[in-house]
Amino acid sequence: MLPNLPGKIVKNLANYPALIKQSALELFERVKSSDRRIYEVYDNLTGLDRVRSLHVGVAEAEKNFTQKQVKRKECQKEVFLLEEARNRINVQMDSVRRSDESFLKLVTELHELSRQYQLARDRLTSIESDEHIAFEQFSSILRHSQAEERIQANRMRQWTVGFSLAAGLIGFGATWIRFRQLDKQTSSNHLTAASSEVAEFSTQDLITAVQLSEKKYRAVLNELVVLINNLNDSVKSINEAALKVAEFSTQDLITAVQLSEKVNFSMLLSIIVLSICMCI
């Protein structure tokens, strides 16, 4: 037989609000305890725990001093009433003859009032002494509390200045690192642009040099062609002169020799120019 699943589900759903409430309370307590621990650590670092303890001591000392003041006022009032009663009895004793029976009664009352007055005066003196001691304690604790508050305020200012300085140094460091990165990036960009410009400039110069060399080679070739044509003409002239050497006179022979020397010089010059072009 299958279990009663719907009934269990309904029961669990009915228990969900209580579970959620309990979980919320537990979570709230945990957060509260963690906040308390955080505040305790903060108070220990900043010195607020000592200031708070001194404030508690100041409150207790003030309460004690106030109580002593109330007791002193009550005792002063009692002394004042007893003194008034004594003065009143003294006035009555002055108006009553010493032989009357009421005089003895007044003397007895005066004696009792004097005794109570003396006790009240002694008690007032003790209470005033206690009040003075309580006031000294209250003043001492208050001064100590004020000094601790000043120390705590100075400590907070020091912490503030320290954190501000640390934040400023961190910001300066981040800015410096960023500036260095930008400087490196800018330098690399400049180097890339300069190298590209140098490459373009070198390529352009190379093309120009090649064009100039080509022009020079063409000019040299043209000169060589002219020299070769001249040499051909000279060779033809030499051949014609050799055929007619027997018919020429001495003067014609000298002219032929000079022409042969010119041809040899032209051939030597052409060889030198060709060698220079090859070296270039």
From TrEMBL:
<protein>
    <submittedName>
        <fullName>CHASE3 domain-containing protein</fullName>
    </submittedName>
</protein>
<dbReference type="InterPro" id="IPR037660">
    <property type="entry name" value="CCDC51"/>
</dbReference>
